[in-house]
Structures are given as structure tokens and as C-alpha cells.
Amino acid sequence: MEINGVEIIDTYAEAFGIKVSRLLVTAATKELALTATTEATGYATSVIGCPAEAGIDVYLPPTETPDGRPGYVIMICQGSKKKLSHELLERIGMGILTAPTTAVFNALENPDELLNEGFKLKFFGDGYEKELEIAGRKVHSIPIMSGEFLVESEFGIKDGVAGGNFFVGGDSKMSALIGAQAAVDAISNVPGTITPFPGGVVASGSKVGCNSYTFLNASTNEKMCVGLKNEIEGSEISAAVNGIYEIVIDGVDETSVKKAMYEGIKAATSVPGVIEINAGNFGGNLGAYKINLKDLF
């Protein structure tokens, strides 16, 4: 099967379940909102080694936010409710409350349950905090040096999907990178999804376990390493592919992840020099979701 003349390998992406929360961060300017969301989603590429997976979902103009200011929606993901609760408290408290002019609202529709992390944060106000209502939402006003920090009392969480993925293979490293970046740009327009790795692009794809060292739970995916394709048996890289990058997607549900994969692959295949789209799976050892690339089209 080909899309825009690019071969789509007959394989599937293996994804897994994860707990997801979605927050809206507003500020006086778009730039200030972006600064706060960038801080709040830092060190969150993969739960293999990070305390969470997180990223910026979509930008919302002032006409679409509860307080009439520009804002960004972010997603924060973790494997359990307890760990996600901790990450919400830490990332809002240290990455957003500390940033100028910010406010935080729940942005997850139809949650499975609510966590009272905003209520917990109000105690930073040392008894001077107040309770407000903004656009029908219960919000805590916490006095800070520059004025006040506003945070909604409760944030929704739900069962989401993490690890949706595909590989962009190019005739050179640069064509593969440009294709991967085009994919990330397209996915950024799909609400309810994030690409948590740096700039959305994964340079160092991993596999479950390790062939040589028993103390590692994950290690380099040698079958998808360009530099090893002529040195190992079982390489999954075609002879013509000289550059490859991975896109990993987390989403609020499987439908959103599939939509993001579709849009990302379509964009990547429009880049000259991109010659192959592949995906990562581990024989069902990683997760319950199997997303066949050809089924997306």
C-alpha cells in the first residue's frame, strides 16, 4: 500500500492504556501562557524514565477560554491515578503558579472522575485565599506577590491511550527529519493528542527489555537503527532508507490517537525524500492496543 507514493509497511503500532488529564493554562499574553505550559510539561517524554508524559495539545484564543484570555491546553499522563494526582499538583504548583499572570482550568470533557488538586493548591494562600465563580466554574483565588493566581478546584481524569506511533523513513537523515517535523505540525491540529518527545520527534526509539544487560528494562531498538542495518540480522530498515525518526502519540482515547496518526502520516508522506512509513510493536508485550497502519486509510 502507498500514500502519496510512499510505502506503508503492513504492520501495527502497539499502544497501551494510561491515565490522562487535560488542563487549560491562560495568561495575559499568548507568550506568557506558552512559557508556563512549557515549564509544566518539561521532563515528560516517556514514563520509561520520566515521572510523566506531557505536552502541549492546542492553543485557544481569548474567545474560547473561561476568563477571556489566550491559553494553551496541555495533557499530563501517568500510569495510575495516584501518580497522576501527584504530577498535577507538582506541575501546576511549580510550573504554572510561579509564572506571571497565569490561571488554570479543567479542560477534560467527560472525565471518568475528578481530582481536587486545585483545592489542595489553595492552601498556599495561607488563609488569605478566596473562592470565586468564573464561567460557572468553582475557582480558588490565591494571593501572590504580583496579584492573584486562579485555579479551578477540580480537574478531570480518564483512561487514555499512550504509545501510538509510526516511523518516518527517508532516503537521507534530513528528509526523514523534515518528514517527521511535518507530521508533528499536522498532529498539533488534532485536539486531544500530544507528541511528548522533544519537538515531537523521537531520535532514540527503544524496545522492551535488553539483549545484553539484565539490569535494563528498555534499550535501543537495534532493528530500527540506521547505522546497524548492515551489521545485524533481522533489521527492519529497507536498503534505501538512510534516515529514520519516530513519532509517539498520547491521546484521550484510541479514536484521537488514530486520527493523529492518520494526519501525521499523510503529512510526512508529502515530503520529498520520505520513502517509507513503519511502526513499532513488541508482539503484544507492551500494550493492549494494536493500531494497523493500513487500517488508518
From TrEMBL:
Pathway entry: One-carbon metabolism; methanogenesis from CO(2); 5,10-methenyl-5,6,7,8-tetrahydromethanopterin from CO(2): step 2/3
Catalytic activity: N-formylmethanofuran + 5,6,7,8-tetrahydromethanopterin + H(+) = N(5)-formyl-5,6,7,8-tetrahydromethanopterin + methanofuran
Domain Formylmethanofuran: tetrahydromethanopterin formyltransferase Ftr N-terminal: 1-144
Residues in Formylmethanofuran: tetrahydromethanopterin formyltransferase Ftr C-terminal domain copies: 147-296
GO annotation, cellular component aspect: cytoplasm
EC number: 2.3.1.101
Broadest EC class assigned to this enzyme: transferase
GO function term, MF aspect, one: formylmethanofuran-tetrahydromethanopterin N-formyltransferase activity
Gene3D superfamilies: 3.30.70.520
Primary location recorded for the protein, binned into one broad class: cytoplasm
GO biological process, one term: methanogenesis, from carbon dioxide
Key words, A-Z: Acyltransferase, Cytoplasm, Hydrolase, Methanogenesis, One-carbon metabolism, Transferase
Subcellular location: Cytoplasm
Summary of subunit composition and partner proteins: Homotetramer.
Its job: Catalyzes the reversible transfer of a formyl group from formylmethanofuran (formyl-MFR) to tetrahydromethanopterin (H(4)MPT) to produce 5-formyl tetrahydromethanopterin (5-formyl-H(4)MPT) and methanofuran (MFR).
Family: Belongs to the FTR family.
Protein name, per record: Formylmethanofuran--tetrahydromethanopterin formyltransferase
Species whose genome carries this gene: Methanobrevibacter curvatus
